[in-house]
Amino acid sequence: MDYNRNNYKQALDNYPVTTSKLTVKRIDFAVELSLLIVGISSPHHLFAAPVSENAVPSSKVSHVEEIEEENDIISWIDDTQLTIADSIHDYSSSFDHFVGKKDDEEPMNNRSYLRLKLKSRYSHRENFDPDGSVYFKLDLPHTKKNWKLIFESDPDDFDRLEDKERGISANSSNSLSGAVGGVRLQGRKWGEWKTNFDLGLKLRFPIDPFTRIEVYRTDQLSYEWTSLTKQEVFYYKSKGPGAITSFNFYHAISQAPSTILKLSLNAQYLDTDNNWEVVQQAEIFDRVNQDNLLQYSIGVSADSRPNYSVTNSWVSIGWKHRLYKKWLYLTATSEFDFQEQFNYKINPGIMLELELYFSSNARSTDRLKRSIPSL
Questions:
Q1: Three-state secondary structure of 61-130
Q2: What is the DSSP track for 285-318?
Q3: Residue 93 located in a structural domain
Q4: b/e for 52-66, b at 16 or more Cβ within 10 A?
Q5: DSSP-based three-state secondary structure for 267
Q6: At residue 2, does pLDDT exceed 50?
Q7: Where is the domain boundary, 62, 83, 104?
Q8: What mean pLDDT do residues 266-278 have?
Q9: Is the model more confident about 29 or about 335?
């Protein structure tokens, strides 16, 4: 990526907007951070001003020219995000109307979206681990059974359960390689249980069909406690079956549910290694304000093979920040792991994650919101 402010200015003189220098600096920081995360930039760029080939002494640059240049960058970023989001909405709505909408039926809100993630993790005793993923969901609200089309560039079905629960970069030898695509039937009820059903293919040769079935229910245990029980079973032709069982308990610490305690116990079985992995975790989500969320986590994981043993215990503190509007987010997480492979010696680390959302609902959806599941 060639990040040059003059290129933006030459191409976008027709998009003047009013913005603040603080907003521009946050966007510049996000662009440079994304380059650093994927490993094509160096850290000092985060704190260095962009260099122009035709730079003139700062004393000769007028205040008006600086504002125009900053406005051009913001205008280009906003216009690009809006163009992609509108394209996703238009194509999704057109396809939905073609397959499911009746002539006398009113248009329904389409929640299709595209999510891009750039993630890097570094720890004292392990290597630098950059990662990126793409997830796309095409919503079909007019279909009678509310089908959805899904695309995942980095499916996590065969990742370690600890990696899934902590949202960290996958490092398991069993991880799937290659993107998958399919259809999802979401939200069907079976008594007190709700279900999700996925059916699709891994998008590479040889053909590798897969299926996932998830059933879950929510129960109000008391005035203060709510439980979410979930069972998932999946099968890939190339790797065989797997299953995850989850028990989650939620408690609102304050009167307003801006601070939530979550206790969870999860178990995963993978036929590829004939192993049960168990993860127990306690988390606190603290919504500090509209732009910031703090996440505290303490947990332990264990494997059943070759002998039952604790494989890791950890403590982490994460800060999730709304970097720009409601479609660009930055997460920084400090971690302290005590892994079996390092004889349970402390292993400090840090993880950075940049998320971009493209959707007609992106500017009205609060991605920092954490809530207790409702019945």
A1: CCHHHHHHHHHHHHHHHHHHHHHHHHHHHHHHHHHHHHHHCCCCCCCCCCCCEEEEEEEEEEECCCCCEE
A2: EEEEETTEEEEEEEEEEEE-SSS-EEEEEEEEEE
A3: no
A4: eeeeeeeeeeeeeee
A5: strand
A6: no
A7: 83
A8: 95
A9: 335
Taking only the tens place, the pLDDT of each residue in 65-102 is 667 777 788 888 888 989 999 999 899 888 888 887 77
Using DSSP's 3-state secondary structure scheme, residue 365 falls into coil
Which two three-digit tokens encode residue 231? Answer: 């069972």
Is residue 96 domain-resident? no
For residues 23, 29, 35, 36, the Cα torsion angle rounded to the nearest 10 degrees is: -160
CA 92, CA 98: separation in Å to the nearest integer?
10
Domain that holds residue 311: 113-358
pTM of the model: 0.77
Name the one residue in this structure whose structure tokens are 């005793």.
Answer: 125
- Amino acid of residue 199: L
Between CA 177 and CA 159 the distance in angstroms is 11
Same structural domain for residues 63 and 178? no
Spatial CA neighbour of 154 closest among 170, 139, 165, 167: 170
